[in-house]
Structures are given as structure tokens and as C-alpha cells.
């Protein structure tokens, strides 16, 4: 049985037994305690011109992530469209510019819809 998920060697299948070195365990613990470190070290985005590049957080994004990590409940006063989303089930409202029709769906549904229509 392959260890990868479908044809992507970067994603492991579920229920695989792994063994870790003490250094890997320490890195795992550090990542679980410091989400900013984890993002800056391990998260990558696909940029149009450069390809796969490390995700670079802006100052306000670091502050938001630290705030979410350190506090169970947060209220954020911020502008629209500034790169924040709570999760795949975050509800969003979309308006068709031509018809004016407004629909509501989750970020996950929006992603799946656009992924299948590109």
C-alpha cells in the first residue's frame, strides 16, 4: 500500500504508523505551541510568478494569529478583504453583479465550486 494520498507524495494517507526522532518530537511540540513559527517555517503558497514560496506573514496577521492562539475568545475590528478567515465552515455572502442575487455558502463550498469550474 502506498504511503501517499492519491498521487500527491506530499500528503500522507491516514492511519499510518510513523516513528519520530527526539528532534522531530521537539519540533512538533514547538510548532504546536507557536503557530507563527509553524506558518513561517512550513507553510508555502503557490505564487503565480515564483511557484511554491514560503508564506510570509504581515505584521497584523502575526498579531491576529498570536491573539487567537493565546485567547479563547477574540473580537477583531478590521477591514474587509484583508486575508483572514476562521475556517472552512466560515459563512460568506456572494452577490451576482449582473442579477443582484445574493447567496450564502461556506468558504469550503465556495472553494469546491471554483475548483470544479476552473
Task: Describe this protein's structure.
- The chain is of the alpha+beta class and 118 residues long.
- It has two domains: 1-84, no CATH class; 85-118, no CATH class.
- 36% of the residues lie in helices and 21% in strands.
- It has four helices and six strands; from the N terminus they run ββααββαββα.
- The chain has helices spanning 22-33, 35-42, 59-70, 107-116, and strands at 4-5, 8-12, 44-47, 51-54, 91-95, 102-106.
- The strands form three sheets. The protein has a two-stranded antiparallel sheet.
- Strand 3 and strand 4 (51-54) form a beta hairpin.
- Helix 1 (22-33) packs across helix 2.
- The chain is extended.
- The two termini are 32 Å apart.
- The model has no long low-confidence stretch (mean pLDDT 84).
- Which class do the helix and strand fractions yield? alpha+beta
Q: List the secondary-structure elements in sequence, H or E.
A: EEHHEEHEEH
Radius of gyration: 18 Å
Give, in spatial order, the strands making up the sheet with the most strands: 1-2
- Let me know the largest β-sheet: 2 strands, antiparallel
Question: What's the count of strands?
Answer: 6
Helix count, DSSP H or I runs of 4 or more residues: 4
What is the overall silhouette? Answer: extended
Number of domains: 2
Low-confidence stretches: none
Distance between the termini: 32 Å
Q: Helix amount, in percent? A: 25-40%
Strand fraction: 15-25%
User: What is the mean pLDDT?
Assistant: 84
